[in-house]
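Workshop exercise sheet. Pairs work together: one partner reads the sequence aloud, the other fills in the structure field after running the prediction. Swap roles for the next sheet.
Pair: D.N. / O.F.
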Amino acid sequence: MKRNLIIVGFVVLLSAFLLSACGGTQGENTVQNQLENQAPASQEAEVQENEPMGEEPTEAVEAEEPSTEITLVDSLGREVTLAQPAQRIVSLAPSITEILFAIGAGDQVVGRDDFSNYPEEAVSLPSIGGSFGELNTEAILALEPDLVLAAPITTAEQVQAMEDLGITVFLLENPVEFEGVYEMLRRAAQLTGTESQTEELIEGLQTRVNAVVEAVAGAETTPLAFYELDSTEPTAPWTSGKGTFIDTLIAMAGGSNLGAEFEGAWVQVSAEDLIAKNPDVIILGDSIWGVTPEDVAARPGWEAINAVQNGQVYPFNDDMASRPGPRLVDGLEELAHLIHPELFE
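Structure field:
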């Protein structure tokens, strides 16, 4: 009996121990489950904080294409607008034609004036007249230009008449110094979309001009030069006066322009005055019309002039001095060689 009581007591103690052990395991599992259940909730809250609430997705904005429109003010003070660089151009002056080909826009030229004879490719283009200021507007319209480029030889009335017909006209100025030429080239480049080629051209021109200026800076004399434009009246030939590009070129080439001593941009000088002033160099801009050094020497009284006696009467292509454009640099270089041959031997 006593033994049975001991066994029963042992069983009771063992049962109590087992119940206690089971209770502890359940508690630990409950805490662990709570922690595991809370972790996803915490992560979800973190995600929700990092994500904007209630915002619509942003739509991509398409970049606008840059405008090709060009607006410039011409030498008449008119504001001229092109929708894009001109592709069909009519030139109304030889200087303009030379500029367009020099800046790389030759393929965009569809017509020219009668006197445009350089470069050679321009000669084959259709002519629209222009002799003595007359323009064939019907011929211009037939070429369907998106731009007509003109020089001051075209009057404001002619410009207005073309505008009245729906033709876009831009008038370029006539500069009297090289900085003005460079700016004129840049304007033409803006109108034709050839800016990069034009800047390269200008850099080359500036280098050549500077080379001439540096060369003549070492000259010991300043020869007096007479530039003959027109000797239709041999006793009173025409020359270029002060403030013209020819005057500028002669000065930059190391000479003194005889014509600058008279009033006016274009003046007639009597043979008596010319002989009295006794120029050292005579430059025949009218040689393109057939005037020769022999003709000059044969004029009465001219044999006493230093230039004639020393054989310093030279034919010269007047286009390189009277057409504002890149070939003015060619003219400057040649004039420097004629006025100061000793510097270029």
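Discussion prompt: The radius of gyration is 44 Å. What would you look at next?
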